[in-house]
Specification:
The protein is of the alpha/beta class. Helices cover about 25% and strands about 20% of the residues. The longest helix has 18 residues.
C-alpha cells in the first residue's frame, strides 16, 4: 500500500476550523489517519513524505464553475492549460461547464466526447455539468445515469449559438424529468427586460454604457422565475454567478417557503467594482456585469451572514482578439473573466480584511462546492475516508499577478498587477503532488469524477 505523510505546524483540524500541528496519512489516495499534535511517532520517509513546516495545510479547493471549452474552442482554453492553472492555484477539482465547447454537453454522446478529451490531459480531478436546452429533456436521465454532476441552463442568450436559452415551457419539461433524481439545475439568471434607449447610446468604451445594458432587474426577474419553479417542482435549483444583491431577498424568501435553492457569487464581484473599471478595459467585461461598490459590500455581507452558499471563479476565457482590447468596445467584446488560478488568493485577500476565518474558505470553496456537484463523499474535507486532496499555502505572504505567472492559455485578466495575499506552495491530488512551487507534475495525474460513483468509476453508457 502506497502511503504518503504530510506534516505541518498548521493543519486545519476538525469541523470548527481549528488550526494546529498534525500529520495526515494518505494511503492509495485516501486519507487514512489524521494525527493531531507535534509528537508524531510513526514512520517517516524523507524521500516521499512532505514536511510543510509552518505552511497551512487544508483541503484542496473545489471550483464548481469553470469553462474549459475543449473540444471545439480549445484556443480559448483546454484541459491541459485549465487544469495546470487550477493546480497552481491550490484547486484539486474543477467542474466543467457544458458550453463554449463544441459540441455542447447536451446529450450523452456529447458527454462521452468530452470525457475522451479530458481523460488525456487533466492535471487535477475533473467533474462535469450537462446542459438543458430546448428539446433535450429526454437526454437528462441518461446523462444522470452516466454520472454527470447536474445541469445548467440560460434564461437569456448564452453568447454561443449551439447552446440556446430555454423558455419557461422548456423548464417545465426539464424539471418534470429531474423530479425524483438527486440532480440539480443551475441557472444563468438573467432575462430580457425593457431598457431606456438613452441608457445604452453613450460611448461603447465607457463601462457605464455596458452596465446600463445589463441592469439588476434582469437578474431579479429571472430569480423570481427560478424561485417559483423551484417551489413548484422541489427540484434543487442553483443560481450561478449572482451579481445583484437586490435578488437575495427573493432567494431567502423562497428558502423560508421550503424551496431547495442555493446561490453562488464569484471572485470578480467581490474583488472588482464598476467605479474603478477603466474606459475601454474590456478584460473586465462579464455577464452579469461587475456592479457598483455599494452592491459589492452587500454581497460581502451576504457571504458573512451565510446567505450566499459558495464562491467560485466562473473562469470564462477567450482569445485576446475577441476581447477587442484595441477598440475597447464593451458592447461587442466577449464577456468573461479569467481568474481560475487566483481564486484562493482573491477570496482570502478580501475575506481576511473583513474578519473571516480560514475555515470560511473551506466551507465556501471546498465543502459546499463539492456538495453542489455531488462529490461531498470524497472531496472538500480533511477527514478519514476522503480523497487525499490538499493545498499547502502561506496565507500571510503576498504576490503580484504578472503575465509570466499566469498558467491559463490566454493571459488577459483584470487582475494583472494586483497584489494578493496567499501564496500556494504545493497542490496534492489523492496523495500525489501535482504542483510544487512553480513546477508541475510531468504527467497528468487528474481523474474524471462522476456523481454517485466512487473512485473515478462511472456508469458511462
Amino acid at each position: 500500500m502506497a502511503t504518503v505523510r504530510i506534516k505541518s505546524k498548521r493543519v486545519l483540524l476538525g469541523d470548527n476550523g481549528g488550526i494546529g500541528p498534525g500529520v495526515l496519512e494518505i494511503t492509495n489516495g485516501k486519507i487514512t489517519s489524521i494525527i493531531e499534535g507535534e509528537n508524531y511517532n510513526g514512520s517517516w520517509d524523507s524521500q516521499t513524505d512532505i514536511d510543510a513546516g509552518a505552511h497551512l495545510v487544508m483541503p484542496g479547493i473545489v471550483d464548481s464553475h469553470v469553462h474549459v471549452n475543449e473540444p471545439g474552442r480549445t484556443e480559448w482554453e483546454g484541459y491541459e492549460t485549465a487544469t495546470r492553472a487550477a493546480a497552481a492555484g491550490g484547486i484539486t477539482t474543477i467542474v466543467d461547464m457544458p458550453l463554449n465547447c463544441i459540441p455542447s454537453t447536451i446529450s450523452l454522446d456529447a458527454f462521452n466526447t468530452k470525457l475522451d478529451y479530458a481523460a488525456k490531459m487533466a492535471a487535477v480531478d475533473v467533474a462535469f455539468w450537462g446542459g438543458v436546452v430546448p428539446g433535450n429533456q429526454l437526454e437528462l436521465k441518461p446523462m444522470i445515469a452516466a454520472g454527470i454532476s447536474g445541469f445548467k441552463c440560460f434564461l437569456i442568450h448564452s453568447g454561443v449559438e449551439e447552446f440556446p436559452h430555454v423558455s419557461e415551457a422548456d423548464l417545465h419539461k426539464a424539471m418534470k424529468e429531474l423530479q425524483g433524481t438527486d440532480s440539480v439545475l443551475l441557472f444563468h439568471a438573467e432575462v430580457e427586460t425593457q431598457l431606456d434607449p438613452e441608457d445604452t447610446q453613450s460611448s461603447p468604451t465607457a463601462y457605464q454604457t455596458f452596465l446600463n445594458s445589463r441592469p439588476k432587474a434582469m437578474e431579479n426577474g429571472a430569480i423570481e422565475l427560478v424561485a417559483k419553479l423551484c417551489l413548484q417542482y422541489r427540484v434543487p435549483c442553483h443560481i450561478v454567478h449572482l451579481s445583484s444583491a437586490e435578488a437575495l431577498p427573493i432567494i431567502l424568501d423562497a428558502r423560508k417557503q421550503g424551496a431547495p435553492i442555493t446561490v453562488e457569487t464569484c471572485h470578480h464581484y467581490l474583488s472588482l467594482d464598476a467605479e474603478t473599471v477603466p474606459s475601454g478595459a474590456t478584460q473586465f467585461k462579464c455577464c452579469p456585469p461587475i456592479r457598483e461598490k455599494e452592491n459589492q459590500e452587500k454581497l460581502w455581507q451576504a457571504v458573512i451572514n451565510g446567505d450566499i452558499d459558495l464562491i467560485v471563479s466562473d473562469h470564462s476565457p477567450c482569445t485576446a482578439d475577441l476581447k477587442l482590447t484595441k477598440e475597447g468596445d464593451f458592447m461587442k467584446a466577449w464577456g468573461g473573466i479569467s481568474s481560475l488560478q487566483f481564486g484562493l488568493s482573491l477570496f482570502w485577500t478580501g475575506a481576511r480584511s473583513r474578519g473571516l476565518h480560514i475555515h470560511e474558505i473551506v466551507h465556501l470553496m471546498c465543502e459546499r462546492t463539492a456538495q453542489l456537484a455531488g462529490l461531498s463523499d470524497r472531496k472538500g474535507q480533511l477527514k478519514v475516508g476522503m480523497d487525499g486532496d490538499v493545498v499547502i499555502w502561506d496565507p500571510e505572504s503576498e504576490f503580484k499577478v504578472t503575465r509570466d505567472k499566469i498558467e491559463h492559455r490566454n493571459k488577459l485578466t483584470p487582475y494583472e498587477g494586483m497584489i494578493l495575499k496567499g501564496v500556494v506552495h504545493k497542490t496534492i491530488v489523492r496523495g500525489q503532488v501535482v504542483y510544487d512551487s512553480g513546477v508541475h507534475s510531468k504527467t497528468p495525474l487528474g481523474k474524471l469524477l462522476f456523481r454517485g460513483a466512487r473512485d473515478g468509476v462511472s456508469a458511462r453508457l
